[in-house]
Design a protein that fits this description.
Blueprint (H helix, E strand, L loop, with lengths): L1 E2 L5 H8 L2 H4 L11 H11 L20 E6 L6 E6 L2 H11 L4 H11 L5 E3 L4 E2 L6 H19 L6 E8 L1 H4 L4 H7 L1 H6 L7 H11 L13 H22 L5 E6 L2 E6 L2 H16 L4 E10 L2 H5 L2 H8 L11 H14 L4 H14 L9 H14 L4 H13 L3 H15 L6 H11 L13 H6 L15 H6 L23 H7 L3
Helix pairs in contact: 3-4, 4-10, 5-11, 8-10, 8-11, 11-12, 14-16, 15-16, 15-17, 16-18, 16-23, 17-18, 17-19, 18-20
Length: 498
């Protein structure tokens, strides 16, 4: 693996302009944003979106595409935001400019070797692994494994939780991070500073808001690291470098190691104060303390998942019983990374089944409810359902998919589910017409809804480059009826980061 900050400006630009960097979530393989990014890159030709505008984009709502993924089937929601491609490419051009990139890299280097060990530097793959898988491997090596090693030295661990990190980050703090607070304050509103230019790009897609950055792209992960590195620097200024504690940080996930509750809580207060300075705050409900560092180093759901790794085949020999055990696990640890991995492993095992089970509808019902309780598992559950229902007769297929669809429609903010439901219902071999109000689903069906507001754009060439039909790189109807384990490999890899 290689760190992004070790790349040249042109290499970094190429990395950020990949479709998987623009949106690093789990979408079916026939959806890709890379064609639009390539065409917009050609139109902008290394320049700024401002050359193509008729009006300021921050005067318009809906410039970025916003959607919400349900986290628990009820009231917990996770937003994801697709930055307007013209603003995204323009921001990549700005950050990766031959003069600006070295400045950013140098500033990030100044944040290192302080009181906080940053473990979330962006990395990319140079082998057959995806960038996401490489990033997850980095997390496992730098956070989990180091946490376990610290059990040799420390007796107490404290894991504070940052509430809505990306949604609450104060965008003016980007300039503070890059130029220092005094310089940034003196040049507030001046477009000469690189930090102010980055800030204005982010505001341009978010209706001029100064609170929050988009969630869902590698580029915004990079911007978040700039601000959080600045927070690290300020924590170091308060704490200095001492031998009686260690702090690990992976993005907004902090781990404090010390030899007493008092010392750990002193450090926690300083972290909280510095985070508050850039608009973030700690959530008390999810802050976790332990006097056993080994136990605290591994998430409870992961430990429980290790116990259930083989899905209990010795005691649950039938698939129905294995699904029920997985359902019970999901009720205890909804939407957890361990649950996602277990779903993926069951999907792999199930893909070898060729006979239609007598309790097929029961199995479908249990698998569907796992996804209702934990919607983030749906790519893996979609694979399970597609295989199970493929074993049914043509008439029963329609009946079962109709029931699954109806149950899923009861989940509020289910656009993410709709995208994956389309993947498993749309193939010709299933024989069901799929309709949805989700804009991305409409685009897959050949319609042309707006994903991004383009009324601020004057350039016809740029408008043509933004044709949303380009995100569909293959007909959904041509997809195989059964979702293979390989098709949701990214889903499996991402699970390790949770």
């Amino acid at each position: 693996m290689k760190r992004v900050v070790d790349l040249s400006n042109e290499e970094a630009k190429k990395h950020f302009l990949k479709g998987s960097s623009c949106f690093n979530g789990d979408f079916p393989s026939y959806i890709s944003f890379e064609p639009i990014l390539k065409d917009v890159t050609t139109v902008l030709d290394g320049g700024n979106y401002a050359a193509c505008k008729a009006e300021k984009p921050d005067l318009f709502p809906g410039v970025n595409y916003n959607s919400v993924a349900n986290k628990d089937g009820r009231f917990a929601w996770r937003p994801f935001e697709l930055i307007h491609p013209a603003i995204y490419v323009s921001l990549v051009n700005l950050i990766c400019d031959e003069d600006n990139w070295p400045q950013i890299v140098q500033r990030l280097a100044q944040f290192e070797n302080g009181a906080v060990d940053c473990c979330s530097a962006l990395v990319m793959s140079f082998d057959d692994q995806t960038d996401q898988a490489t990033q997850v491997t980095s997390w496992w090596q730098s956070v989990e494994q180091r946490s376990l090693i610290f059990s040799l030295v420390f007796t107490h661990a404290l894991h504070p939780d940052v509430t809505d990190c990306y949604g609450s980050l104060y965008t003016h703090s980007i300039s503070w991070a890059l130029h220092g607070l005094e310089v940034a304050k003196e040049n507030k509103g001046q477009n000469a500073l690189l930090g102010n230019k980055i800030d204005s790009h982010i505001q341009a897609g978010r209706y001029g808001q100064t609170n929050g950055i988009s969630q869902g792209s590698v580029l915004m992960d990079f911007v978040a690291e700039i601000v959080l590195g600045y927070v690290d620097e300020r924590i170091t200024a308060e704490l200095g470098k001492c031998d009686d504690f260690r702090i690990l940080r992976y993005r907004d996930d902090y781990r404090i190691f010390a030899n007493s509750d008092v010392r750990a809580e002193e450090i926690l207060k300083i972290i909280s104060d510095q985070l508050r300075g850039v608009g973030m705050k700690l959530g008390v409900s999810k802050t976790f303390a332990s006097k056993n560092v080994v136990e605290a180093s591994i998430k409870p759901d992961k430990l429980a998942g290790i116990d259930l790794q083989d899905l209990g085949t010795a005691n649950a020999k039938t698939l129905q019983k294995q699904l029920l055990r997985l359902h019970a696990f999901g009720r205890r640890y909804p939407n957890s990374g361990a649950l996602r991995r277990l779903v993926s492993e069951l999907h792999t095992k199930l893909s070898q089944q060729t006979e239609t089970p007598d309790d097929l509808e029961v199995q479908v019902a249990i698998a569907t409810d796992i996804a209702v309780v934990s919607p983030a598992t749906f790519p893996g559950v979609a694979g399970i359902l597609s295989h199970l229902i493929s074993l049914a007769s043509a008439e029963d297929k329609v009946n079962l998919w109709t029931k699954v669809r109806k149950k899923m429609s009861n989940v509020p903010y289910n656009g993410y589910l709709e995208i994956w439901l389309q993947r498993v219902i749309e193939p010709r071999s299933v024989g069901i017409a799929f309709t949805s109000d989700e804009p991305i689903c409409k685009i897959v069906n050949g319609e042309s809804p707006n994903l991004w507001e383009n009324a601020w754009i004057a350039s016809n060439a740029l408008k043509a480059a933004l044709d949303v039909s380009k995100i569909v790189v293959a007909p959904a109807a041509d997809s195989q009826e059964v979702v293979t384990p390989g098709e949701v490999e990214l889903f499996r890899q991402n699970a390790w980061a949770y």
